[in-house]
Amino acid sequence: MIRIRGLHKSFGGLEVLKGIDLAVERGQVVCVIGPSGSGKSTLLRCVNLLEEPTSGSVTVGGAEVTDPDVDIDRVRRRIGMVFQAFNLFPHLTALENLTIAQRRVLRRDKAEAVRIGRDTLRRVGLTDKETAYPAQLSGGQQQRVAIARALAMDPDLMLFDEPTSALDPELVGDVLAVMRALADEGMTMLVVTHEMSFAREVADRVVFMDDGVIVEEGGPEQVVAAPRHPRTRAFLTRVLDPAAARVSEADGERPAGRP
Ligand SMILES: Nc1ncnc2c1ncn2[C@@H]1O[C@H](COP(=O)(O)OP(=O)(O)O)[C@@H](O)[C@H]1O
Ligand SMILES: [Mg+2]
């Protein structure tokens, strides 16, 4: 579904992606983990050409998005994207947030857009919030509306960029539950996340990125539970037990080998 070969991306003199090769098969869930600034968002944004790669190729469902002749709007329509910030229209209700792109982009008539919108709100557990405005919803509910908005467009794959990072801890679970259900339904998903339990339980593969390269890649039982590379281990120690990582750094020890 996604095939990335030799992907490089620079911003001016700053090389952010330094040769990424990655494949996501149909129905797979691939989680990307790694420190802030390592290039995870840029990688995701290159998949739907929100950023233009400096070199290398990206194909999505067989269409080469890096081909100058590609109909990028057509490719983008098949890709749902969910960001850390929900980006809902504040002056529209939850249901209206779901119908607007269906009508404008997919040219669905109002009745169909509403039917699909309601159906999708049900899938994310928000049937009773149809008429609520974003300001009347919790962060977790807003993010579920954002996921529903993407799903209402019938995407072939979904990109998630730290979808739970802006949420209060007690609201994270509901969003992850929706994502887990999507994975169970067979959605192809590329997910940047710091939620290691999600990566461990849901991902088919986990990719650890650092400084613009993929350092380590494999099943979650390997990358998350028994990382081979010292940089992966150090990162996981920081993510899984920040207090302990600080203590061991203060002691001048290397971070513990296993998270
Ligand atoms: N549009 C941009 N212009 C200049 N630099 C950018 C831009 N987007 C990202 N960067 C830089 O690229 C690096 C990687 O950023 P990003 O992909 O957001 O990392 P991550 O998502 O892993 O935190 C950072 O140093 C960031 O400052
Ligand atoms: Mg990011």
From TrEMBL:
Pfam families: ABC_tran (PF00005). SUPFAM superfamilies: P-loop containing nucleoside triphosphate hydrolases. Its EC number is 7.4.2.1. It is an enzyme of class 7 (translocase). It is a peripheral membrane protein. PROSITE patterns: ABC_TRANSPORTER_1, ABC_TRANSPORTER_2. GO terms for cellular component: plasma membrane. Its main location: membrane. The keyword NADP does not apply. It is found in: Cell membrane. Keywords: Amino-acid transport, ATP-binding, Cell membrane, Membrane, Nucleotide-binding, Transport. It catalyses: a polar amino acid(out) + ATP + H2O = a polar amino acid(in) + ADP + phosphate + H(+). Residues 2-236 form the ABC transporter domain. Belongs to the ABC transporter superfamily. This is ABC-type polar-amino-acid transporter.
